[in-house]
Structures are given as structure tokens and as C-alpha cells.
Fold this sequence. Notes:
The protein is mainly alpha-helical. The protein has one domain. It is 66% helix and 0% strand. It is built from three helices and no strands. The chain is elongated. The C terminus is likely disordered.
Amino acid sequence: MGDLVKQICEKTGISEEDSTTAVKLVLDFLDSNLTSECKKKINELFGKGYGTSYGKDYGNS
């Protein structure tokens, strides 16, 4: 998740904290709307425990 947050900071000029919040919101949205197979791919990209309340293991959803 850190690489994505860094890219958002660089390209938009917003703070790391705001970038992290944005990424977490998107991940929550995806968790609510994607199939379990897609969630497994997200887990592969971001790993387990990539955020506080967002640290879901998408491979087991």
C-alpha cells in the first residue's frame, strides 16, 4: 500500500495521511462490491493487514 500512497502524494500533492485515507476508502469500497476471486487479487497486491480496520484478509472473504 505504501507505494500507492507515495504515488498519490507525488501526483496530487496531498499529504501522506490524506493519501492513506483515500486508499483505505477505495479498498473498503472494493471489499463491499467485488467477488471473492477479485478480493483474493487485492490481497495479493496489498497483503494481509495493510491498514487498521482495513486489514482484512481478502483471500478468505
